[in-house]
Each structure stands twice: as structure tokens, then as C-alpha cells.
Q: What sequence folds into this?
């Protein structure tokens, strides 16, 4: 009377589906690689990086040709730059290879579905394949490539003790090297050689990332007894010039030059010069789906220094216009040079901060004692972003100018005391020991 379960192909039980439903497994990809270059291009945006690069970048986007697995990587300051970067990439492929991209595969990030992006894809007849919501496995080629790039960049930084704000240069160097290394997916063929069979792998001999180098000074008008070279940090290779990419910590400038002498056994930084842990720069990838919330660690309130204006040296990504050899690029004007208090959206954040200070009774009005000077205050601004990298809210804080205090007079007075994490751990340990 009871049927054998082995004879049932399925058990249509609604309650079982509601209570025991699981996700579909994803087997390893079969050998269904594209048959020709740029028949299928994978893409993904990585970021937000917690530490801005030397030139202010916090994201990068990759485009991977499925046939050759050759990768193009572009640094971005925000996600809104994606459309203009894709336009340049599409034009470059058409011009250099005389081929049009047929299919673009991405995740469901909103920047891939903007009105401009959708219109451009429709106009050029490009099919846009996107993964299902919370299913990064369907965009596995781009996701795995980003992990490979970040792991390689992290290793380059740690091995040579290079400060983490040079992560943009490390990622570009990692992409350059990976494109010129054998790939198991290609049966030990080299991605660069598949697309450029007539070109040599390296137009310049590869060097050790982060080593000490000396760049010839070619600026006219130098004194006869002045130094002939400048000590720099080696950070990679130029994409459009036959030169090495070097950085001077003395002038805070990038140089692209072929007249470089390397001390490859001598790292520029002997010890780690950044106190920021590497996980703050390259977050450790989470294997669980994006909607799964990881356990929240113990948080201690502290205020980090915030950079309001961009750094004074210019932007010089690898895909930018050629820069004269051994000469710095000129600085470019930016809208961020405007006073931050007049930008749209910050006024309400300041009003909310003042209301909170008054409601909490933060200060009392008293008569200034004789012989004492006041400590001024200033506004500090920050943009808070969500897990998806989108702007969550604007935050404004009124802080005291502690650097105006005088040693021996009011130097020991603290406006906003903050406990160190070591002190918190010690307090919790003593509380546990004493019950």
C-alpha cells in the first residue's frame, strides 16, 4: 500500500518545499570557452576599498575576454565612471582588433543598468547577460579573476613592505603580470600571446615590485654639480609608453622613464610603514552569499582622520594619455577644491549635529579664566557608504582643535577621551577574572 520511494522521481510536497528548500549546486564549468576573441566579455566592479589609493581611487573594473582570458583593468574613483570607461574599452577593441563585442556578462550592479549604458548596448547590438540576484556564481569568471588580482596585489605589497595606499599600482602590476603568465584554463597557454602572437611578452625586462630605483633627471637647467638621478619607488609598468613607472616620495610625483637603474635586492621600505592592517585595504572575500550577514565584531568608537580635499599630485592611471619621460604630469583642477561646507547636502548634516550637541548638553557657557586661551573648533565631514558601495548618508561632526593646546598649560585636557582597544580588552579580562 505504501509506494517505494526509490520509484518516485519527485515528491510534490508543498510543506517540504517551504521548509527544506535549498539552492541549486553549481558544478565546475565545462569546456565551453568562446571560440573567437571578444565573442564573450566578462566584467565586474571591485570596491569600495577602505583606503583610497595614492591618486584617490577606491574601485577598479575588469573586462576579461573569455577566449584568451586576457584582462583589462581600469581604476575608478566612483562607480559612475563605469560607462565612460566601457565606451573607451569598446572603441579600443574595435580599433585595435577590428572586432565588435558580442556579449557582455556582468552581475546585477545598478551601474550596468543605467539609461546611458542600456542605450549604448542596444545601439551597438551587444547582448547583456546578467546574473540572478545574489548569485555571483553565474559571473564566476570575473569574480574569480578579481580574487586572483587582489591576492597577487596583496602579496606584492606585503612582500616589499609597500604602504597600502599604493594598492592601485599593485593591482595594475598584478594584471600586467597575470596576462603574461601561463593559464591552466588555456592548457598552459599565455593570454597575451593568444591575442598578440607577433608581439614579445615583455617590451621591458620585468623588475621586482617595490624595490629601490634611480630615475635619470632630464629636466633642463640643472646645476652641473647637482644629482643626476632621483631615488624612487618602482611601482610597475606603463601601458602606453616603453618605460617603467616610478614614484618619488620626495616630490610626490609619478615618473615614466626608460633611464632607470634598479636595486632589486634592496626594498625601498625596509619595514611596514603603515599601521593599517591589510584587511582594511583588501577585505577578505566572503564565501557565503551577499545577503548572509556575518557576525559583527566588537566595535570601539574612534575617529579616524579624514581627507577632505584630493591629494596635491595629479592622476596618472596606466590607461591615461602618454606622459613625457621622467617628467611629472601637470595637476588638474577638480570640483572638490571648493569649500566642502557649500556643497549640496552637507548643511542638513551640520544642522543635525548642532541639534544633537544641544540636546545632549555637551557644553556649558562659563566665564573664560584669566590667563587661559580658548580651544577652537572645526567641522569634519565624511561620506558613509553601505555594503554595496552606494552612499548611505552624509555625516558632519564638530570637533575641537586639540593641536592648538599648549604643553604645560592645557595640554593634558582632553575634549573627547577615547579608550584604546587594548584598554577595553584589559577591562573585560579583569571583569571576567573578578566575576
A:
Amino acid at each position: 500500500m505504501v509506494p517505494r520511494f526509490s520509484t518516485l522521481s519527485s515528491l510534490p510536497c508543498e510543506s517540504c518545499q517551504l521548509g527544506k528548500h535549498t539552492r541549486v549546486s553549481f558544478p565546475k564549468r565545462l569546456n565551453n570557452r568562446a571560440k573567437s576573441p571578444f565573442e564573450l566579455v566578462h566584467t565586474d566592479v571591485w570596491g569600495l576599498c577602505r583606503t583610497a589609493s595614492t591618486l584617490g581611487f577606491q574601485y577598479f573594473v575588469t573586462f576579461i575576454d573569455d577566449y584568451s582570458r586576457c584582462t583589462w583593468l581600469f581604476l575608478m574613483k566612483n562607480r559612475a565612471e563605469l560607462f565612460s570607461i566601457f565606451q573607451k574599452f569598446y572603441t579600443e577593441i574595435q580599433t585595435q582588433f577590428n572586432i565588435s563585442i558580442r556579449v557582455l556578462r556582468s552581475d546585477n550592479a545598478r551601474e550596468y543598468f543605467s539609461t546611458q549604458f542600456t542605450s549604448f548596448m542596444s545601439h551597438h547590438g551587444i547582448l547583456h547577460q546578467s546574473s540572478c540576484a545574489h548569485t555571483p556564481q553565474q559571473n564566476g569568471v570575473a569574480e574569480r579573476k578579481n580574487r586572483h588580482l587582489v591576492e597577487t596585489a596583496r602579496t606584492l605589497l606585503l612582500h616589499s613592505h609597500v604602504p597600502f595606499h599604493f594598492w592601485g599600482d599593485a593591482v595594475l602590476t598584478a594584471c600586467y603580470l597575470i596576462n603574461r603568465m601561463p593559464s591552466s584554463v588555456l592548457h598552459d597557454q599565455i593570454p597575451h600571446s593568444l591575442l598578440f602572437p607577433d608581439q614579445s611578452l615583455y617590451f621591458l625586462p620585468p623588475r621586482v615590485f617595490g624595490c629601490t630605483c634611480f630615475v635619470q633627471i632630464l629636466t633642463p637647467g640643472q646645476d652641473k654639480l647637482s644629482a643626476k638621478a632621483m631615488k624612487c619607488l618602482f611601482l610597475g609598468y606603463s601601458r602606453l609608453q616603453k618605460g617603467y613607472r616610478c614614484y618619488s616620495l620626495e616630490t610626490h610625483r609619478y615618473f615614466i622613464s626608460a633611464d632607470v637603474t634598479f636595486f632589486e635586492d634592496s626594498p625601498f621600505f625596509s619595514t611596514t610603514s603603515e599601521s593599517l592592517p591589510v584587511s582594511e585595504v583588501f577585505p577578505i572575500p566572503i564565501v557565503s552569499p551577499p545577503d548572509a550577514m556575518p557576525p559583527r565584531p566588537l566595535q570601539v568608537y574612534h575617529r579616524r582622520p579624514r581627507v577632505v580635499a584630493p591629494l596635491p599630485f595629479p592622476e596618472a592611471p596606466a590607461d591615461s594619455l602618454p606622459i613625457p619621460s621622467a617628467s611629472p604630469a601637470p595637476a588638474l583642477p577638480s570640483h572638490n577644491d571648493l569649500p566642502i561646507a557649500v556643497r549640496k547636502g552637507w548643511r542638513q548634516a551640520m544642522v543635525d549635529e548642532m541639534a544633537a550637541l544641544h540636546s545632549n548638553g555637551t557644553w556649558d557657557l562659563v566665564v573664560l579664566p584669566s590667563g587661559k586661551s580658548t580651544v577652537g573648533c572645526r567641522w569634519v565631514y565624511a561620506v558613509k557608504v553601505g555594503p554595496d558601495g552606494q552612499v548611505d548618508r552624509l555625516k558632519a561632526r564638530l570637533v575641537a582643535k586639540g593641536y592648538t593646546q599648549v604643553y604645560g598649560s592645557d595640554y593634558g585636557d582632553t575634549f573627547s577621551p577615547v579608550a584604546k582597544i587594548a584598554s577595553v580588552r584589559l577591562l573585560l579580562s579583569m571583569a571576567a577574572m573578578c566575576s
